[in-house]
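Re: your question from the hallway

Yes, I did run it. Sequences:
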Amino acid sequence: MMLGYTVRRIAGTVPTLLILVTLSFFVIRLAPGGPFAQERALTPQVRANLDHLYGLDQPLGVQYLHYLRGLAHGDLGLSYKLRDESVAGLIAQGLPVSVTVGFAALVLATLCGVPLGIFAALRRGGAVDYLVTGLATLAIALPTFVTGPLLALLFGLALRWLPVAGWQQGDPIYLILPAGTLALPVCAAIARMMRGSLLETLSASFVRTARARGLGPWRVLLRHALRPSLLPVVSYLGPAATYVFTGSLVVETVFALPGTGKYLVQGALDRDYTLVMGMIVLYGALTLLLNLAADLAYGWLDPRVRHE
Amino acid sequence: MAAAAVIAALALLAILGPWLSPYSYDALDWQHLAAAPGLTAAHWLGTDPLGRDLYVRTLYGLRLSLLIGVLASAVSVGIGVAWGTIAGYVGGRTDSWMMRTVDVLYALPYLFVVIILATVFGRGRVAMLLVAIGAVGWLTMARVVRGQTLSLKRREFIEAARATGLGTRAILLRHIVPNLAGTVAVYATLTIPELITYESFLSFLGLGVQEPQASLGSLINDGARQMLTAPWMLLAPAGILFALLLCFNLLGDGLRDALDPATH
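Structure:
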């Protein structure tokens, strides 16, 4: 049954990715002004050669099929602006950094958010509860492009505890501020969600039965209440991953990280078609994959979902 | 409801505030480059390195951010309500195709769609920015509205309206939509801060509002660059954006709890 569910979910993901690729390909090509339009006026011959090199002289449909064939082989084309660089090569350079930061943020957010939510729910109406829910509301309202610079100002410039920006391979101290910035709103959302769902579970009849059987509060929590109340949190990890990816565009700009996010921004500013396309495909695929993973984990935790 | 008062105060400040200062948002003051803020100083919130008055620029940015946020929300509310009521009321195959479209669009990473649209339409055109942001914000609204329409559809007064021979269009406009007003108001209030965040996000990355115009996002970006020498450039717009988003979220949550107890 789990296998059938897995196959169904994967089958649903592939068309979505194809739609994303198709949509962004044609929308970007429809834009007035090509990637060479802003530069110094080129002689017609040079322009024609450039167009030919990048395949821009062919009909749109042919270009599209060509792109799809390249995509299937992992070839995302050449960047228009960063000469001699292939998009796949740029991704290979930047992706390890982006993935490290994003993954650290998700782990950090889960490790902080779940216990905070549990404490708040167990001490409902207490000081901890008010503190957690209050701070969560604040943290959710703050976008990363506000918290990032503010945290850099506080910890980097005022207190001088952490480096303001930059990246050195293998030195985790450069990871703290970017990952913390990304994790903050996700952590708040997880804490809030965890609190709500645990409160709901604790009032369910099977928990009352477990208590009536004389089980201690910790045993009730760990053996009975925790697993069902983790479900919403697990399903939130998909959207959380999307949030972290979009946030990483900001964080990589603020903290000057050599990740892939800056290529998306740069590509969009330069109208570097292939670069933007490559990044959209990359981030789209990552987002869909993580949503898929969250869905599968959900199906694994909650058998009812598989039978829908 | 204190949140509503703060929002009203900020909106008023955005509209009237710039007139209280003698400077315009793009005027350069060569005598005061990167001046620090102070109540007795010529520039209340200081200036940036080009000598532009930050009090005026911040309020001007607030005005633009609010304007784009509210108008884009209006666009997305319009699309969402139309989409949701039609899908919910007509039902059948139309409904399943319309909602499947929404599902697929939901799965796309929306901010990347906004980035594509911003790339395509060219930067700096506020109208385009508005449409691009509004075009991705309507999905939740469509889902919520469809759900509400489905339950309204089975009520007696709709049946009565249909029995009197009223056309689909008239029923939708005269009976369904007015009954959705409460729900729509709640979700519109929650859409506004979301879309303000999108706009500021794009402007922060340099893909939104262009110089010499300013929005809160582009001011925060300018401030982050000058953080070392002029931290006030960051703190003023960041504080205002924070207050704005917080109040809209509180207001939306409050309205939802008041009007729609089922979701709580």
